[in-house]
Amino acid sequence: MPIYFRDKYLPPIWQKLQLGERLSLEDGLILFKTNDLISLGKMAHYVQQQKSGDAVYFVLNQKIEHTNVCVLSCKFCDFAKKKGEPDAYEMTTDEILSKITPEIKEVHITGGMPHDWRWERYIDIVRSIHNKFPDADVKAYTAVEIDFFHKKFKLPIEEILRQLQAAGLRTMPGGGAEIFTERVRKLLFPQKIGAKGYLEVHKTAHKLGIPTNCTMLYGHIETIEERLIHMVKLREAQDETGGFLSFIPLAFQPGDTGIKPKNQFTSAIDDLKTIAVSRLMLDNIPHIKAYWVMLTEEVASVALNFGADDIDGTVGQERIAHDAGAISPMKLAKDKIIKMISEAGKIPVERDAFYNPLNVYSENVIGKIPYLNSVPFYHNLEKSATGGFKILPVAPRRMGMLSKEGQIDAGLFSLMDYFDQEENLELLDWCIATRDQVKSVMLFSKEGWTGLNGKKIGITDDTATSVHLLKVILEKKYNVRTEFVRLHPGVNDYASFDAVLLIGDDALKYNKVGLNGFELVFDLAKEWYDWQKLPFVFAVWACKNSLSDIRKEKLKDMISAALNKSEDEYGEIGNMQGRQIGLNLSETKEYLEGFNYRLGERERETMSMFRKLVNEINIKV
Ligand code: SF4
User: Fold this and answer.
1) For 279, phi and psi rounded to 5 degrees?
2) N or C terminus of the chain: which is more exposed, having fewer CB within 10 Å?
């Protein structure tokens, strides 16, 4: 993508980004200071496309603010009331339940902190929602509220989170981070936890398998350097745990807070810059959210080409932002969100709380397996995807689910999904097959193969084919029976399993650095090759039978041209993604050269043999 820079300080940063190098705080200062807004946006858009292609996510969500009574008095808050004040309210559990409808996929609960609620009341809210609406993910209580519970009910933070998790809590919101410097904390919210407390709560949640979001409140009294310090602290925490799903820059709403004149909102330029810089600085956080309630629809819509890939959702009630003067309407209907995303040239993707795609609202969608091994196809395909095709990164198993519902037109399908949907799909001439070992479909085990008999194996949620390959190897090659348990998306506690099957970039990463507690590592493609003397085929290119002949031809030309162009430069094109999982240039090159990308005779032989073996076993995961 050519960028015509007007700021001479930006090209060195662009160079770093293309090499997958991490930006420094000093780089961040240059980005914030630049007047070359368009180049900044293009760089952020480039990085966002590497992570989420043309997808923009939204969720059908309901925000519940169970009470506005709060013991704290944060200066920027127009929402909180003291008990007995005329506008103070406290919702009962029944009132809360009455606000949720069956189509809601995420219930987002935050509110004030009254002095007289019992611990059981908070637990009861989570449990009641979870029991009545099991399909909705309960995303509840900010780090500030968790810290309040910890102090008030004299329970360790870990215990608080365990009890909420047992009641049905799935994820946590990111509110309460504000700005991570003591200077700002002392001036604006002295009673609130600072960076240390906030990060401790989030890291504890991640350890327990509760993914969270993180935020930054900007546009009040903070300096640009303080914004960057905030981002760097989040980036360091993410390096440790990997549990943040998305970062949400929250534009300060002055309202009657007295901190800034009532109508002095952040400028659109500042909002767009902040979104773009966050995308570029937070290289390890998967998603950046343009929170339309605070940004306005117009700015949020432009932000989708400035690095943001999430627009939040249908929301419901947004009292904190609204009471302080947010000027967006209270509720954007789903259709309106879909229109906003489509008009930005993107694919509207309805998601769950873990960013699993549930529905895709666009035509001509090519599914992309977001792993390093598919880069030789997609690197150039993304650049040449014209004729109305758009690219949606999606894990193999999810791609199969979407395709089954007719929501994906073409893609690199997991072999099992292709078998399953063969009647509706046309097989194309390309695949991902190994020569012998694969390095990215790995069983990390505490036992040797035969020692796994009767043991419990954790299976990554992303896999469709690898789980069948593992079962075939266990039962047909080693005569071993095991129990398979699907891991949930996001962070997981692997220690409770006897072995764990990981695929894609996670497998590559742990293959290099090791997975704590699992001494033995088995490469499933090598196991297959040693047994059958055939390469293993993990995925095949296919498109919908119903696609018109013209579209099919266009697609084939695009795939063929993209692959031909990638040859001889595997290392370079995979370098950015390779670096993010700890591989150097030559390791990336060697890894990608270990695959066969064209479907030949031996690959077709494997497909027949594997189909026969799978039909002989019984698998339920
Ligand atoms: S921001 Fe939250 S903690 Fe602070 S006063 Fe308002 S409701 Fe209470």
Assistant:
1) -60, -40
2) N
DSSP character at residue 21: P
Task: Give distance in angstroms: CA of 273 to centre of ligand 1.
Answer: 27
Q: How many angstroms separate the CA atoms of 178 and 397, rounded? A: 37
Task: Look at ligand 1, atom 1, and give the residue with the nearest C-alpha.
Answer: 77
CATH classification of 10-352 is 3.20.20.70, yes or no? yes
pLDDT in tens, 229-239: 999 999 999 99
Q: Which residues of the chain have pLDDT under 70?
A: 1, 315-333, 384-387, 488-492, 619-621
The reply to whether ligand 1 has any atom less than 6 angstroms from the CB of 40 is: no
pLDDT digit string, tens, across residues 587-609:
899 889 989 999 999 999 999 99
Q: Do domains 10-352 and 361-435+536-616 have the same CATH topology?
A: no
> Encoding tokens for residue 217?
């409140």
Cα 251 from chain centre: 22
Handedness of CA 605, 606, 608, 613 (dihedral sign): positive
Residue whose Cα lies nearest atom 2 of ligand 1: it is 112
d(CA 109, CA 139): 6
What are the sequence ranges of the domains in the chain? 10-352, 361-435+536-616, 441-532
What's the CATH superfamily of 361-435+536-616?
Answer: Periplasmic binding protein-like II (3.40.190.10)
Whether the CB of 74 sits within 6 Å of ligand 1: yes
Q: How many CB atoms lie within 10 A of CB 249?
A: 28
Single pTM value for the model = 0.86
Give the SS3 label for residue 138: strand
Distance of alpha carbon 300 from alpha carbon 385, whole angstroms? 25
CA of 416 relative to ligand 1 center, distance in Å: 50
Burial class of residue 35 (count of CB atoms within 10 Å of its CB; 0-12, 13-18, 19+): exposed
| Close Cβ partners of 162 (under 8 Å, ≥ 6 residues apart) | 208
| Dist. CA 113 → ligand 1 center (Å) | 8
The one-letter amino acid at 375: V
Query: For the CA atoms of 122, 126, 129, 132, what is the dihedral angle to 10 degrees?
Result: -110
Indicate whether residue 123 lines ligand 1 (CB < 6 A): no
**Cβ of 112 below 6 Å from ligand 1:** yes
**Tens digit of pLDDT for each residue in 138-169?**
999 999 999 999 999 999 999 999 999 999 99
- What pLDDT does residue 340 have? 87
Q: Which pLDDT score, from 0 to 100, does residue 330 have?
A: 41
Establish whether residue 77 lines the binding site of ligand 1, counting it when its CB lies within 6 angstroms of any ligand atom: yes
Topology adopted by domain 441-532:
D-Maltodextrin-Binding Protein; domain 2 (3.40.190)
The pLDDT value recorded for residue 134 is 94
Cα distance between residue 307 and residue 295, in whole Å: 15
- Give the number of other Cβ atoms within 10 Å of residue 283's Cβ: 20
Q: 499-518 burial, b for 16+ CB within 10 Å, e for fewer?
A: bbbbbbbbbbbbbeeebeeb
